[in-house]
Amino acid sequence: MTTSNAADGDVDPAVREELTRLRDSIDNIDAAVIYMLAERFKCTQQVGRLKAEHRLPPADPAREARQIARLRALAGDARLDPAFAEKFLNFIVAEVIRHHERIADDAANGATPSANRSRSFSAGE
Amino acid sequence: MTTSNAADGDVDPAVREELTRLRDSIDNIDAAVIYMLAERFKCTQQVGRLKAEHRLPPADPAREARQIARLRALAGDARLDPAFAEKFLNFIVAEVIRHHERIADDAANGATPSANRSRSFSAGE
Description:
- The structure is a homodimer of 125-residue chains.
- By secondary structure, chain A is mostly helical.
- Chain A has a single domain (11-116), classed as Chorismate mutase (Chorismate Mutase Domain, subunit A, Up-down Bundle).
- Helices cover 68% and strands 0% of the residues of chain A.
- In chain A, helix 2 (61-77) crosses helix 3.
- Chain A is elongated, with a radius of gyration of 20 Å.
- Residues 113-121 of chain A have low confidence and may be disordered.
- Chains A and B meet through helix 1, helix 2 and helix 3 of A and helix 1, helix 2 and helix 3 of B.
């Protein structure tokens, strides 16, 4: 499913075609990113379980600092604003924390007993 | 460059290896996503230029509604919270708006004269 068949009114067909081409690329990229992020959340959930099972320290500030530095460098390579890469990591971390909180809430209700230490985990992993 | 060589103290080597494996996957995914987003921003910048050059209407609420519905459906397929997909689009849109504002500021300073109508563009594209 693409979402680029917009009613663009009386636009030059060549321009509309170019707009459709660009929007199709945007739609493809968005789909790829959503599926990549689904894989990323699977990884962070596994990290959360591993840490809970083996009583590893929840936060790892050194790892987080390396992640931020690395993403800023990658953004530079990709000609993106490095500040954007840091914001992106923060955005993802907020979602991981939300996942962990949900797991902790489930644990409080007796659903997944080993996961309730995950609230303060190093969420970027 | 990966960032998973954390000093995890006296952790079972098998556990540390598993943690490293997961963090390497997270690092790979983050790199992929950063590069995908760099491509996405290239597309939105082209859309911005196209709209400015051909005096197309800046916003396209129908396109935006389709994008949100599609990303929510994709998130469902990927077993992600559909609300996350919508938040993700909003996060990206905020960055695109920031790009457009920077282009508009440049235009105000005489750098890129055709781009100063882009401030109110449909930023998700």
